[in-house]
Amino acid sequence: MTVASPSETAITFADNRLLALLCGEFGRNLKQVEDRLKVQIVQRGNSLILVGDTDERDEAARVLEALYARLESGRAVGGADIDRELRLTPSVPSRQMNMFPGDDRLEIRTRRKLVEPRTDAQRAYVRALHDNELNFGIGPAGTGKTYLAVAVGVSFFLGGQVDRIILSRPAVEAGERLGFLPGDLKEKVDPYMQPLYDALNDFLPQRQLQRMIDEKVIEIAPLAFMRGRTLSHAFVVLDEAQNATPMQMKMFLTRLGEGARMVVTGDRTQIDLQRGTTSGLIEAERLLRGVDGIGFSRFTRDDVVRHPLVARIIDAWDRDSVPAADAGDDGR
Predict the structure, then answer these.
(1) Is 281:266 a contact under the CB 8 Å cutoff?
(2) Mean per-residue pLDDT, 112-124
């Protein structure tokens, strides 16, 4: 990287083919960097000229050089990769994915795709999923809490670290009384479990996924169905845990068996329990904080990776939220 003038920075790249991939079709990759960092990027031959304030130019140069290094390593660069590089702490760029010597676990390999954390909080979360037998992921919608947990579960299974995957949710809307709904058990349960199926479909080929479900290697069931079981040698995820009661949460957590990993995800701002009912997620957070072997990973609106509007929607709701002192016991 060289400074062309007080207001310009020039970056020269050796491989024009990789430079074309870095720029993207019709320059859309450069446009994403320009929009986020408020700089102008102009291509001149095999160089990119950055125009703007010094700090923004330096950050844009860091991002572009990291993305180019990614291309040199044989990996693709898309919108999600650019977003990740823009979000990560400059001192630890994503091309240095190994946070600790000999540790490549932050790249989650599944049968269908390679999953990489896109924010610092996601990166810490993935590390915590490996380090703790029980981990809580708490934060707003769209931050990747469940998606990353399921991805790690699939990678654990493919690596032989667990024998099965168990995914669960409280079926709050049906009051856990699924018998009142039409259809057989699968038809009753599936509407509540669909987000978990969606995540699995991203990581496993459809035919293999269906076979694993048929053979009960992957099990997707309501929280009420966990009672009385011991979940050994399994990767277990409880999603939407804010809708579990304290008794349900205690029941679930005490299912943990030998060789198992457990992840509990939830959003304290989206509790659907009846007013006056304490959320089991909030109770667990209060009681288990500081317990050895249990990790808590927290996300904020800055970690939302769905769509830029989602973060703004969360902000709007937060600004209009009822003060905690008036919100009752349900954490709304």
Answers:
(1) yes
(2) 88
